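WP5 quarterly update. Target: Starch-binding associating with outer membrane. Source organism: Arcicella rosea. Length: 484 aa.
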Amino acid sequence: MASSCDSWLALSPQDGIVQSRFWQNKEQVESAVGGTYASLIDGLPEKMFILGEIRADMITTSFRITNNELDIINSNILPTNPLTDWRDFYRIINYSNTVIAFAPSVLDKDKTYTEVALKGHVAEAKAMRAWMYFYLVRLFGEVPLKLSATSSDDEIVPLPKNTKEEVLAQIVKDLEEAEKDIPTTYGNREKDHSRITKYMINALQADVYLWMEKPTEALAATNKVINSAKFGLVSNQERSLAWFNTIKAGNSNEGIFELAYGSDYTIRFINATYPFYAIFGSGASSGFRRYQATTYVTETLFTEDIIDPTNFDTRADEASLSTATGVITKYNRLSGDTPFNFIVYRYADVLLMKAEALALLNRGQEALDIVSQIRKRAWAIPQTEKSPDATNIDGTGGVLEYILEERAREFAFEGKRWFDMLRNAKRSNYKRIDLLIELTARSVPSERQQSAIAKIKDPNSHYLPIYQYEIQTNTLLVQNPFYK
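Structure tokens (predicted):
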């Protein structure tokens, strides 16, 4: 936390955010908010994907895997691993704090800047801050909670960690405050998907409340999105990939919030380079990929109909992956060099979060009906269909387990799997720790499984270590328990 102002704490002159000549008019506020999105898109999506998938059971090594990534896959996570560096998240938090701190001063300087516009900009910043802290609390557990802007080295002070409960309480507070003032629309679909709206906040609230084991609140949040009638599942009347490519291209009626690499809103601030080409390759560059699908995905999650090859799940072969080779195709270019959006939340996610909340409220049949709706759109095959007793909510083979499997198919390789598994495992004081044990047995090489399973049984191991550089430069930070 006490690193140089030239790293995560600084907003350099070209950012145009912390300058004496800045914060003079509404255009500069808009530029500052847009710069926050641009900085997010320029640096974080690759890390969001890796940290959301690499400890789970759906990706494994390929040609260009790095040693740091391999260590995590092998359950050998060390504080010296740069993938545990949280500075990218805190950089966005500081940008958000800066907007919250300085934007109000523009009201007196620019009479065309309205109170409504100010409240909207501050709401975007609070929601962005909450989203970043939600990543941090799920990845590291206890983290420093910094709510003030830092604009110079003189303002850097050591900070201790806050408890998970304190961080989550601030996330809830930020989202509740942001929801009151955030726009429901910015005038067109592209902007509505690439900027935070009320409905992105509602989707994030549902995610947060499920993590906090508050299904009533999660259900209410999902219903706000559903009852708006602004979103729906992209239609798939015939068994084809057209629906999948519509979502992939971005700005569909299913999208709620997307990191838009081709957006006019972000391209003004950065020359966006799509990060996933380097991870998975695309077309001729596929030999440069670092990851591919595990056999659990190709043989179990997306099993084949051997009798009738024309009967297939449209989320599988050539959509998310090649079941024959394990090559992940979800991030292949649609055409030429055209990038596509990285989907953060879409309507299917809201529906399956609602199903999870309903199940936790002992409304199992309603939850199963939603799963059936998702499967029908995908033309899911009978071989992956299960019929859990609607009263068996959280037992082996129960409703929650079925929802978890369906989330794996629907959101394959979208950076959600580890968080989904951990959320379900830790519920009710780790009642389903077996989910993580089975995950480890599926994903860790056989020669390392015994050690990895012993580690995963310790809840402290479910959080990453604090990067060693942060420990060395912040005297108030204490290393997470498992890594001392």
